[in-house]
Write a structure and sequence with these properties.
The chain is built from ten helices and 26 strands. It is of the alpha+beta class and 494 residues long. The strands form eleven sheets. A six-stranded mixed β-sheet has the order 3-2-1-4-5-6, sandwiched between helices. Helix 2 packs parallel to helix 8. The longest helix is centred in the last third of the chain and has 44 residues. The N and C termini lie far apart (162 Å).
Length: 494
Amino acid sequence: MRRALGILGCCLALLLLLPAARSSPHRLRQQPRPGGGLSGSHAAADSACKNRPLDLVFIIDSSRSVRPEEFEKVKIFLSKMIDTLDVGERTTRVAVMNYASTVKVEFPLRTYFDKASMKEAISHIEPLSAGTMTGLAIQTAMDEVFTEEMGTRPATFNIPKVVIIVTDGRPQDQVQDVAASARTAGIEIYAVGVDRADMQSLRIMASEPLDEHVFYVETYGVIEKLTSKFRETFCAVNVCALGTHDCEQVCVSNGGSYLCGCYEGYTLNPDKRTCSALDMCAPGRHECDQLCLSNNGSYVCECYEGYTLNPDKKTCSAMDMCVPGRHDCAQVCLSNDGSYSCDCFEGYTLNPDKKTCSAVDMCAPGRHDCEQVCMRDDLFYTCDCYQGYTLNPDKKTCSRTDVCAPGTHDCEQVCVSNGGSYACDCYEGFTLNPDEKTCSRAITSSLVTTEESCKCEAIAALQDSVTSRLEALSTKLDEVSEKLQAYQGRQQIV
């Protein structure tokens, strides 16, 4: 980018253009824009000497040394610079950064594509008023402004990246390495010093040749005179504006020549003139999490069945397939990474259709833990025991019942346990009655010994004697009772 060559190119282009404009005005075609629009900046007849497209970033110093009225002069300088540029989405894009000890991106390259909006935004910029961290500002430009996300055009477009730094002081951080990194990355740096600016620092920052990239003015009051210098520096023959190119979509002026480019979503064909729509869903071209659907040079993301697109329109999350209305399970739905399976409540089993449930026979072999008898009760069960057994406290196992325990049998005298049952018997001298429960005194056999007979007679005699005595005693007690009653009666009369 040499000024002499630029001026010469401008003049030659004007000489060539004037007769052509008079005889063939239709050759001054306007450059196409996406969607069929036209770039108004190419409509004028003097478009042959407009600046070539740039991605241009102004970095302005607003440290404490810059007085408010001086900062206003800088803003006027920026506005006049914008007036000289061929501003537009397809031509020159402009960003403005403001720095002191911190850095603020006032607006990136993607924000404004018309001069009025840029100048309005510049009029509202306020100084930061502390420090002079020029190195930090350059690094921020590389990291946050010269990115495609922020509006920098792809390298294939061959659009120059340009920085103009305006400062009146000495950097308070290291600028040499970061400026070198910026230049290596293809960023062309112009350094403008005002008043107290350190010239050595300006030269360290700027691109080669230094005499074309380092400028100095005595005060902010005369900084506007640099406008014409930059106008000359950025002027180039705009072959694209002459209407002599054969680019199908985008023409990019390149000195005295031009290059063809394509709109976003298209790629330049091998003939370097025409464009074809990109398959935006080819591997590596999109950032869809699951499905990519190509859409006329662009794409949209979608998700597999059972997933839903997240608000970022790129990634997918598994749906909760078990929310009401999404499944057809009769009882229990189990969500499983975008799908689901059915299950049943306790006491039910899943039918072969894998959706409905049937009640389980809880007393079927292997389903219960009863030792002897399982008794089904709807969806539950209880345990019981065979006759002659009783259920233990664990409600599962059984123990043999003591059928001869008191209160458990109806034998009059003797209970004889027999497995889980019992039989009645009688004491000696008694015999079991036909009801198999009660007993009667046994009839004494006549075939007894003399000794036994004597014993029986003695016992009988004793019993008769005792009985007689008891009867006599009872009679005397009755007499005593009558006398006592008579005596009590007399006492009451007295």
